[in-house]
Structure formats: C-alpha cells, structure tokens
Amino acid sequence: MHSAAVVLMGIAGMAFGWFVYSRFIAIRIYRLDPDFVTPAHAFNDGRDFVPTHRYVLWGHHFTSVAGAAPIVGPAIAVYWGWVPAVVWVVLGTIFFAGVHDFGALWASNRHQGRSMGALAGDVIGKRTRSLYMVVVFLVLLMVNSVFGVVIARAFVDTPESVFPAWAAIMVALVIGQLVHRKFNLLVLGLGGVAVLYWTVYAGSSLPLTLPAVGFGITPQAAWILILFAYAAIASMLPVWVLLQPRDFINGMQLVVGLVLLYVSVFIFLPDISAPAFNDRVSASAPSIIPLLFVTIACGAVSGFHGIVASGITSKQLDRETDARFVGYLGAVGEGALALITIVTVSGAALAVSPEAWHEIYDEFGAAGAGAFISGGANLIEQGWGIPAEVSRTLLATMVVLFAGTTMDSGVRLQRYILQEWGQIYRIPALGNGTFATLIAVVACLALAFGAGGASGTGGMALWPLFGSTNQILAGMTLLIISVMLIRLGRPSIYTVAPMLFVLAMSFLAACVTLVQFFEDGNYLLVVLDLVVIITSLLVMLEAAAVVAGIRRKRRAERDAAQA
Prior knowledge:
The protein has 21 helices and no strands. α5 (82-109) packs parallel to α13, α7 packs across α18 (433-450) and α19 (466-487) runs antiparallel to α20 (493-520). 73% of the residues lie in helices and 0% in strands. It has one domain (3-562): Hydantoin permease (Orthogonal Bundle). By secondary structure, it is an all-alpha fold.
C-alpha cells in the first residue's frame, strides 16, 4: 500500500475532528463563553498568569506536551503492524486526546487556573485530591528524570544537535522581549525559524562534545546536571521571557518539519514495507492488547497533557474560546506528528523491502526515535534533495528541542504542584517558588543519580511504570471532567466513553506489568505499581459515590416537584 493513501486517510480523519467534532464539543458540551474572565486576566502577575496570544499559546502547549513521546511510542508500536498504530492514533486524536486536552484546559480555566489534582477536591472530594496529586507528582518525576537522560544521550550520540539546541534558547530570549513589546508576530515567527534552521545547518558541521569531567562522571551525566540547572532557572523566569517564545519557535519549526515530511511522502511515494498486522511477533513480545494503548500515549491520549493543560496553559489563556484552538488543535498537531512517524518507520524510506524491515524490527522495542530520524532523513532527501546528514541533524534537533521544552514545562509544573501543596496543607516553605523549584530538581537528581550512580540514568529505573501510570492519569482526568459535566447537567457520554476505554486498557496493562515486575524480582516497581492501581481505584470509587449522590438528589427534587 502507498504511504500517501495512509496519510490522506489520517489527515481526513483529523480534519473531521477539528472542523466538526471539536466545534460540537465546544458549543454543546463545554459551552465556551467569550465573555468569561479567564485566570490569566483575573490573576495577571506578569510571571505565571499572563494573557497570551492563542498562536503563541498553541506553540507553547503543543511543544510542552509533545516531547519525544509522539515519535518514540508510534515508532515502537509499529512492531505489531502499521494498521493498529494508525487506527489508534487517528481515532485517539479525534475522540480521546482532543476531548481530554481541551477538557482539562476548560476545567482548569473555570477553577482559577488550578491543576486537575487541586480542583479534584472541589469536584469530587479532599481525599481524591490528595490521591490524585500523588500520581501526578510521580508522573512528573518520571518524565523529568527520563527526559534529562534522553536529551543528554542525544547530545552525546548526535553532537551536531548541541549547537542548534542551545542556540534556540538565545533566539527565544530575543523573541520573548520583542513579543512583549508588541512586535509583529508573523515576522518574528518567520525570522526565528529561519535563524533556528541556520543553526541546524551550522550544527551539522559543528559537532560539540563535553570533555571527561572526572570523579566517574561521564559526559552524559554532566549534560544531565547542566540540563537540570538550566531547567531550574528557566522554570523560575516569567513565562513570556523564555518558555513561551521557545515553545512558539519550536512549534513553528515543527510545522516546517511536518511540511517537509508530509510533502516528501507525496513526492517520493514510498510503499509501506511493514506488515499491516505483524505475524512474526517474537514469543517474548508483549500482547498488543492492552500494550498498544499505553505504548502510543502522546499522539492518541496522554495523562501528561492534562497536567500541562491545567497546570501551565490555563494560566495563559486570553479568552475561554481560545481553549478549543489551543487544546484540541494541539492534540491534532501531536496526532499529525505520530501519523507521519508511523509512515516514516513503516515505509521504504526506512527499509527497502519487507524482509529488511523485519530485520530492523526483529523484536519489540528494537527501534524507536533512531528509526524515525534515519527514515525521516532519507525521506526528506528523496523528496526535497536536502543532504541526508543535514536532514538527520534537523530531525535530531527537533527531537531534542521537543524533549527540552517538555522538561522545562515539567520542572515548572513540579514547582506549581509543590506550591499548591503548600497552600492546601499550609506549609509556608513550599509556597516559596525558589524553594519549591529546589525541591523539584533535587528530587529528580536524587532519582537520576541515586538509582543510576555516576551515570545519572536512574530515571530510567521507573520508566517501565510510565505507560500504564500515564494512561491511568488520563482516565482519571476524564473522570473529573465527566463529574463536572454531570454536576452541570450536561451530556457526559463524550468524556465517559473514552474514560472507560482508557481506564480499562491502562488497568489491564498495569496488571500485566505488575506480573512481569514480580517475575523479574523488581519489587520496587511492584510496590509503586500497586500504589498507582490502588490509588486510582479509590479515586474512581469516590467519584462513583459523588455521582450517585448527585443522581439521588435530582430524583428527590423531581419527586418533590411532581408532588
């Protein structure tokens, strides 16, 4: 099958989601109000609460939630065949991710910009709030620790990406100042992307490496320390200084990257080398059900998105009606990235024959971001004539920049969560932004170097938990949104249906991995997996009790009115 046909079908589905389904959700379910005073205006402090142009906010939100996950997850999941991966990405984007991200942004906007964990106390109860926030902090700890490793490895393995990655920060600082002074956004965006791509070209012939530090600290570990020092500083700056412009430019360069890849598909017209359904799966590979639905998270639906939408994005929403553009269209952008990743690693750009493809995908997890970078570089070279080494640097830089923006947002989110804890549990020290940031970074570094020694790779120790934990969090976010809708007397089936599916698949995946952890003798992961399972079960039981109480009250009111 031609990859162009797969692309056309995927784009058609996502176009329906944006133009039709998201409009229905905005008007009939969330009922956006253009006159509602958003938290960005109500609490404008020029630091965290800042009204932001929707195009800038879309770029910030999109690149914060994307990271490397919509590339890595689909690139791995193609192992089961390209059809299941494409179907889950397209349907997940339309009916799951868009509604989830959009809903979390809307819900937080209606609750003073508080995180989903904090507003769970208002919607369901105080115990739910405490339980939910434990899961949130665990997910953030895993994301930040792992992305530090991912970026550091990329700097070591692809030294050509170091110069453009750090140059992007300088570009963002300049653009942030100009945007703040009301310079033309289109001109700044085009200029910023042009400079960024020049640095990519320069970086392809200017590899930068760190020398050995000593004391057993490898260059990779040194990069991890540098990255967390940078993330701590970045998380304390006002959002308009660095976070917004950096994410905006990264969002624009992703759009350019997507155009390069998608147009290359129609120029090169590569066949699909991967099987529609892989019948040569190894005996040791996990089952497609339920693991497909936690392997592809970003690009279909991801609990981390709800943390970003309610933790950072909602504090910058200029008008409530912008929530559809930022939340739902952000999910569509991720779905588009996941779709082209699947096509890239399934087609002739990566392997010239089905047999060659099977040699690359000889076992589950054998291919990931590296397959996307290699296949994407070949695809761009065939389509546009750009040398493969330049294309590889471009795509490697894209992965690094995405991971970097997610890490920036993740550390800031950890600060927000700790500050919310300080307010909720009356711990004044946690209310201090500097102290909260220090605690967040120390926790990540303690995991990185405590579990990983001098290599700093300890964050990977908890990563096997991420898939199911992240998706359970997505289900819990949809649960809170659903309870909100039920309280408001609005239709909830559009959030309840995806919630039930996501929770069913993620719980089954958590149970499968629990057995695997036990058989491997990894009792730390066994304990943490049980904590997540039990915590989420308690949240669902409390939510069910609240919904039952709402329905009893309404029945009583109806009976009284009829009497």
